[in-house]
Amino acid sequence: MRSSLRLGASIAFATCSTLALPHAHAQSAPVPTTPAERADNYVWLEDVNGPRAMAWVKAENERTAKILQSDPRFATLEAEALKVLESPDRLAIPQFRQGTVYNTWQDAQHVHGILRRTSLADYLTPQPNWQTVLDYDALAAKDNQKWVHKPLTCLYPNDGLCLVALSAGGEDAETLREFDLKTASFIPNGFTLPRSKQDAVWVDKDTLLVGRDWGPGSMTASGYPYIVKLWKRGQPLDQATEVYRGAPSDVSTGAFALHDPQGHQAIFMRRGLNFFESEISLWTPTATRTLSLPHKIEIQGLLDNQILLTINEDWKPTGADQTFPQGSVLSLNLDDVNHDPVHLKPTIVFTPTASEFAQDLAVTRNHLVLTTLDHVQGRAYVYSRTPSGQWTSSKLSIPDNQAVEIVSANHSDDHFFLGRTGFLNPSALLLGDAAAGTLVEAKALPPQFDASNDVVEQLHATSKDGTQVPYFVVHRRDIKYDGTNPVLLTAYGGFQVSMTPSYSGVTGKLWLEHGGVYALANIRGGGEFGPAWHEAGLKTHRQRIYDDFAAVAQDLITRKITSAPHLGIAGGSNGGLLMGVQMTQHPDLYHAIVIQVPLLDMLGFEHIAAGASWVGEYGSTSIPEQRAFLASISPYNQLKPNTHYPEPLIFTTTKDDRVGPVHARKFAALMQEYHYPFYYQEIVEGGHAAGANLKEEANTRATEFLYLTRKLMDPKP
């Protein structure tokens, strides 16, 4: 959840429109004097696929499409978005598997995608000779199912046997099937796990550790497994042997494995006590030993028998004199951990500073690659372990105002790929050699829009409590500071997700080229300034996040970059909640709001889809103080009659089994009851995303940017 960089991909937006539209009549009810405690008249919309709910969705979709998709500009925007998304010049994102480069590719001919491979040397040529390994379109046709591909889980070290994860329409629930990469075929009578929210880990070629729905009572309140079983090849699934059990109150429980190029292996059990806290145990077929680790921890790799981890809270190991600060990257000797799981002796790899914080890490054959953010500027390092067991680093050259992420690292040698991107700099893939300390551009995306007259600034706003909040603004060099510029402002503000500069051909083509300004706010709740930046906005402190965003919006107005009639905001998921809060707390500050796959009913979120898993972020209605706060910020409960709100565009998908479409539906239905105008778009496929394929995503993007254009660029009536 740390990096928001998506190479060559469009940023997920939510938006709104200008015309007041007629709406179907809903049941009217007396308006309570305390909106937070109003009766919930729209529980029937929680029946996700129920006929009454789907009839409502169909009517709202048709009403919105009749306005937006009949606009003569829509077809052009959709075609431009699809051209960017399906461009053959897009970067083929590489994934190393024992020195071979794999890639999953979608285009007009491969709607569901293909898994393909080539050698590293061939990949570096302008036109690689790809070999198709798995055709998801052919499989979808054979199975009569709209499969959406998910990552492979492969047996280490030869990466021959893999579990292919297949999602019906983009759901988090998956079907797993055993596949042989070497023969490019599914294994007859191989491991097959029917649809479930599930995880599987290879112990050896004939053994899996599986966490899934084993029947009634085997899933947590969040909808994830908490029982792990050992499953042998040829054994009926219902005869798998239980080897580890969490608790129904956990978010989830599952196994994960680490391997290093030197031949060491460690299998762990993770009990997710909440979204951010875990109890970690080291598992072997003969014993399971709980490790004396802090609960806020990420175990990220294994190199030269050293477990690599990041701590998100201060940690003083049992019996130690030293306290390690939150945000530190540490290593632990696996043999020592096996010998004594209580008295752990970590070695420092990286210690955060006042402005620089770790983001991600990966291991090559002999080295560790680490990326950081230094005042929201991307940085990258190669770390090496000395004979005495200490870690030394060398810095790689990364330009300012760009973000970097680790794309893939090779265990066969010391090569790795970094992705580099910026708002105006087409995304590039950099090939690194950790042993030599070199980094060269291997592939670059051709420009997808004209950025020749654009510039990027990093500015700061002062939040309500005095905190300085940085934000980026992308605008034309000759911008007029007269308050008339159409601005799209976005942020996320949660789950320690860092929002960083990213190249989006769709945003550039459909917004910047038309004179729009784009702004990205690094508000609290994210990970841009380490765990403390995230924790500052947890639970009942969450109002700080919303104050930060409003402060950035106001700063844009104060600087006369824009004004309320020309300011639009967009966000998805947790960012969709942010949009809903801004709409209900600052209705006069914005003229357009895109609310995408959102949380909005914060008094009911714990029983909707996977909502119970996010209590660690938002708090729980079972605790009076937290319930009172959630009621005070919940957009669904704070929407009031007889108020002037911006007219939002609300987007969701029926097959979103993470947040679910319920929040969007109920909020829109309440707006309907109060006779407020809104646009609504709910597509069936896509899961917690903008669509299940590139054509669906292009339609979603065109709808959003047409809405923004109408609201913020068209002449006001």
Summary, kept brief:
19% of the residues lie in helices and 31% in strands. The protein is of the alpha+beta class. It folds into 4 domains: 35-61 and 469-713, Alpha/Beta hydrolase fold, catalytic domain (Rossmann fold), CATH 3.40.50; 91-196; 197-290, no CATH class; 295-347, no CATH class.
Descriptive notes:
Helix 2 crosses helix 14. Strands 31-32-34-33-35-36-37-38 form an 8-stranded mixed sheet, with helices on both faces. Strands 5, 6, 7, 8, 9 and 10 form a 6-stranded antiparallel sheet that branches. Strands 1-2-3-4 form a 4-stranded antiparallel sheet. A hairpin with a 2-residue loop joins strand 1 and strand 2 (100-105). The two termini are 43 Å apart. It folds into 4 domains: 35-61 and 469-713, Alpha/Beta hydrolase fold, catalytic domain (Rossmann fold, 3-Layer(aba) Sandwich), CATH 3.40.50.1820; 91-196; 197-290, no CATH class; 295-347, no CATH class. The protein is built from 14 helices and 38 strands. The model is unreliable at 1-35 (pLDDT under 50). With 717 residues, the protein is of the alpha+beta class. The longest helix is centred in the C-terminal third of the chain and has 20 residues, at 694-713.
